[in-house]
Amino acid sequence: MAGGIGSRFWPMSRTAHPKQFLDILGTGRSLLQQTFDRVLKICPADQIYVVTNESYIDLVKNQLPEISIDQILGEPLRRNTAPCIAYATYKIAISNPNANIMVAPSDHVIADDIAFEKAIVLAMDFTEKNDSLVTLGIHPSRPDTGYGYIQYVDKPVDNSDSLFKVKTFTEKPNLDMAKFFLSSGDFLWNAGIFVWSLKSIRAAFEKYLPEMHTLFTEGSENFGTKNEAKFIKNTYALCTNISIDYGIMEKADNVFVLPSEFGWSDLGTWGSLYDHTTKDKNDNAIVGKNVMMYDSMNNIVNVPANKLVVLQGLDGYIVVQSDDLLLVCKKEDEQQIKTYVNDVKLNKGDKWV
Amino acid sequence: MAGGIGSRFWPMSRTAHPKQFLDILGTGRSLLQQTFDRVLKICPADQIYVVTNESYIDLVKNQLPEISIDQILGEPLRRNTAPCIAYATYKIAISNPNANIMVAPSDHVIADDIAFEKAIVLAMDFTEKNDSLVTLGIHPSRPDTGYGYIQYVDKPVDNSDSLFKVKTFTEKPNLDMAKFFLSSGDFLWNAGIFVWSLKSIRAAFEKYLPEMHTLFTEGSENFGTKNEAKFIKNTYALCTNISIDYGIMEKADNVFVLPSEFGWSDLGTWGSLYDHTTKDKNDNAIVGKNVMMYDSMNNIVNVPANKLVVLQGLDGYIVVQSDDLLLVCKKEDEQQIKTYVNDVKLNKGDKWV
Fold first, then answer.
1. A6 pLDDT higher than 80
2. Are A326 and B309 a contacting pair at CB < 8 A?
3. Which pLDDT tens digit goes with each residue over B179-197?
4. Is the alpha carbon torsion for B14, B20, B25, B30 positive or negative?
């Protein structure tokens, strides 16, 4: 899934070039490319599909020359994850009705690729043998209010020692609730990484999102033809805007979680990037070649290599420069960045977002 | 005088394009052009001379097409104000030995041009009739430690009711001293604007800076010839690096001050610019077309019109963007900017300063 616009990472992430296409950690590969590299250890390139906004198709083509244009699925509208997953599912169904599928966001960071691979192989082994929907749960390390949580039954299911029945999905909690989840020990972060067989997820669509199932089934003869884009355009216009969590995972009774540890972060915020970057002796996380700091600590600085930046007297700020944009903002208030981006859009127009 | 490099205004002011050449107040005219416009009300264009570093001659030519190249005096080295004033003085002496002269920096701001004109005409009238060196003194409005102070005898001289004998010149004082000067009432800021007849200043050079007098007198046949630049190059290499205040004004006994009020500022610091700019309702002084502020007050923001800047959670900061440079610095620490510029030069090279 590579359709997000990453507005919380503005101004580094822009609508025309969002987070998944950026080399946000300075590794030489974008987050999408890192995700591709990771998945390639599990699955051959010709079975990797990228669902993205149709305006990003060229970006995906450029960043992933290893896959064919038929594997890049363009969404005409942003309709959340359920239609996105339905599109890929019903398209794959034509060529491979017995597929076993892993679905993952393309803008997360995973530090331990080997542990990730092991987890996915384990989950796929389970979904191959059991009619089940598996989600990967991350042991929480802090009471984060930016994630959904998964409560699970603390005894593993009979035919696996790693998978657990999910009790409830919880939307983003408030801080007290998040603290309680953390201390209770039977809650995991919902990473938004799913494993299931095509048959199981298709059955779930049919049961819990029947209109969507009908829309994609009735026009399935268009997949792989020159009419696909037109069919998808019409279909998306009729699709509900709904997440797979809300539309299916929270309702289905065959949902299991695989508690995982592989250095995961959704890099959803500058704060989570801060956690994944090396810091200088004053705990400043600096990306940029010509940054000079005075009396400054605990900052996140992300500026292009060709800019000279002198910062003095800043404690706990985010300083980001990107092309013709500058953001200076307190780290603790970074949840407001989405609001600023909206204000910018309203007051200054689309060119800046 | 237009030879300064304005390092305290970095990064807006750069060595290659210093403060006097910038439209720092957003009026449409640079400080040099504003100074020219002001002087033009007192003196015809063909009697206005600009002394500047030779590397800025083209900048002056472009900004002041009204004057001829012979009126732009290029300094090969920075040697403070005494050699700068000597150069202009001894050159003017060739064509106009009876000249009455006003000397002014080109990077100050003067809000009330009419009051300025009146003061200069009054001073020139005095210097025409009396062998005297007149300096303009500004009634201090705060205990500023960045200026020199002039103490004066509180009874006007016999043949004028506006001019006062100077008792002492004082170098930049510490804060306690500056507070005392302010409260005593008989101290003025030294604005660095001088009026004198050519004969009087020449006599003063002869008496107090005799080597400099000899250097400029002995080669005076070179003025206005193709050898002028070479002559000046040799002469400057031999000149002492000294200010006119220290070299002459503090020593001469025919020095008078004209206490003045014309909305003067040397714009020596971002703080003084802040005082001369209109503020928004949160006391932010903003130059820039696309600046959005949240939870921010008492800041100076100076960014190009084509940059979008979002600032949040800043109180009392200077935020300046210029080309490929960014400075964020506490207003109260702006005296450190010179240090940062030196560090930049040492660590990152000349291209950034």
1. no
2. yes
3. 999 999 899 999 999 999 9
4. negative
Is residue B166 classed as helix, strand or coil in its secondary structure?
A: strand
Least confident piece of the model among A25-29, A150-154, A169-173: A25-29
d(CA A318, CA A328): 6
What is the Cα–Cα distance from B6 to B90, expressed in whole angstroms?
27
Using the structure block, give the residue that is written with the tokens 């932010």. Answer: B284
pLDDT tens-place string over residues A205-251: 999 999 999 999 999 999 999 999 999 999 999 999 999 999 999 99
- Cβ-based neighbours of B25, under 8 Å, separated by 6 or more: B109, B273, B276, B277
The token duo for A159 is: 């035919």
**CB proximity list for B118: less than 8 A, separation 6 or greater:** none
A324 and B347: CB-CB below 8 Å?
no
Query: Chain B residues within 8 A (CB-CB) of chain A?
Result: 11, 290, 292, 294-295, 303, 306-314, 317, 319, 321, 324-330, 333, 336, 340, 343-344, 347-348, 352
What is the distance between the terminal CA atoms of chain B, rounded to a whole angstrom?
21
Q: Identify whether the C-beta of residue B8 lies closer than 8 Å to the C-beta of residue B26.
A: no
Burial level of A229, CB count in 10 A (0-12/13-18/19+)?
middle
Nearest to B34 by CA among B303, B267, B245, B301: B267
Question: What's the Cα-to-Cα distance from B162 to each of B136, B201, B303, rounded to whole Å?
Answer: 11, 21, 42
**CB-nearest partner of A313 from B329, B344, B347:** B329
Is it true that the peptide bond before B11 is cis, omega within 30 degrees of 0?
Answer: yes
| pLDDT at residue B200, rounded to an integer | 98
Q: How far apart are CA A54 and CA A45, in angstroms?
A: 21
Main-chain phi, psi angles of A31, to 5 degrees:
-60, -40
Alpha carbons A10 and B104: distance in angstroms, whole number: 47
The alpha-carbon gap from A283 to the nearest alpha carbon of chain B, in Å, equals 18
DSSP-derived letter for residue A173 is: P
Residue A329, classed as helix, strand or coil, is: strand
Q: Which residues of chain B have pLDDT under 70?
A: none
Counting Cβ atoms within 10 Å, is residue B183 exposed (0-12), middle (13-18) or buried (19+)? Answer: exposed
Render pLDDT for A280-332 as a digit per residue (tens, 0 to 9).
Answer: 999 999 988 899 999 999 999 989 888 999 999 999 999 999 878 999 999 99
Residue in the block written with tokens 């003017």: B92
Q: Which amino acid is at B329?
A: C
CB pairs under 8 A between A and B: 104
Nearest residue to A101 via CA among A126, A76, A80, A79: A126
Those residues of chain A whose CB sits closer than 8 Å to some CB in chain B are 11, 290, 292, 294-295, 303, 306-314, 317, 319, 321, 324-330, 333, 336, 340, 343-344, 347-348, 352
Q: Which helix (H) or strand (E) holds A241?
A: none
ipTM: 0.74
pLDDT digits (tens, 9 = 90+) for A119-151: 999 999 999 999 999 999 999 988 888 889 999
Find the DSSP H helices in chain A. 31-39, 57-63, 81-95, 113-129, 175-184, 198-208, 210-218, 228-238, 244, 270-275, 337-348
Point out which residues pair with A103 in neighbouring strands.
Answer: A194
Taking a C-beta distance cutoff of 8 angstroms, is the pair B72, B234 a contact? no
